[in-house]
Amino acid sequence: MTAAALLVLAYLIGSVPFSFLVAKAFGVRDVRRVGSGNVGATNVLRSAGRPAGVLAFLLDAGKGAAAAVIASRLAPGEAWLPAAAAVAAVIGHMYPVWLRFEGGKGVATGLGAFVPLAPWAALAAVAAFAVVAPLSRYVSLGSIAGALALAALAFARDGVGPVAIAAAFTAVLVVFRHRSNLRRIFGGSERRLGQPKE
């Protein structure tokens, strides 16, 4: 399989809209039209309940991991290809062809994609989220902190290489997709953890 075909496959794997499908299975007709409108695990959790949110997170993370592992197995001599596949899967989640390119913010998929490529960096991302989200009470801020921690530790452990560059690019994408959340945080209107629905 050519590199281009592998990247297209990674994109298509990433674009499988698990959060949309899980929410629908749990009674939410279109998760893009409720809550934050995001096709991601957090919005599924808030709109369809904790079991649905956990399932959506695991499936979204799993597709990221699957894209990276498949690329590693099919192109074992190409160090850059699994890293590029990880990014392609994240882009697929953010801009899925099946949902007219209305996707999520790539956090769970990005985490899953880098677990097989940079497990210590992925662990740092989880730790950063676990610290920042409860302290700030903003899931979005915790997600951004996790993405930045992933990139920082990837560079710290491996130097400038395909995985670190892919992690940095993924962090930029995650921050870009959270730009509306950042505006709401600065404006004081972003919903906090534990805050009841209006």
Explain this structure:
This protein has 10 helices and no strands. The chain starts with a helix and ends in an 11-residue tail after the last helix. It has one domain (3-187). The protein is mostly helical and 198 residues long.
Care to count the β-strands? 0
Q: Give the C-alpha Rg.
A: 16 Å
Whole-number tally of structural domains: 1
- Biggest sheet statistics: none
Annotation keywords:
198 residues; mainly alpha; 0% strand
Blueprint (SSEs and pairs):
Elements: H1 3-14, H2 18-25, H3 41-48, H4 50-74, H5 80-94, H6 107-114, H7 119-136, H8 139-158, H9 162-177, H10 179-187
Helix pairs in contact: 1-4, 1-5, 2-3, 2-4, 3-4, 4-5, 4-6, 5-6, 5-9, 7-8, 8-9
Gist of the model:
The protein has 198 residues and is an all-alpha fold. It has helices spanning 3-14, 18-25, 41-48, 50-74, 80-94, 107-114, 119-136, 139-158, 162-177, 179-187.
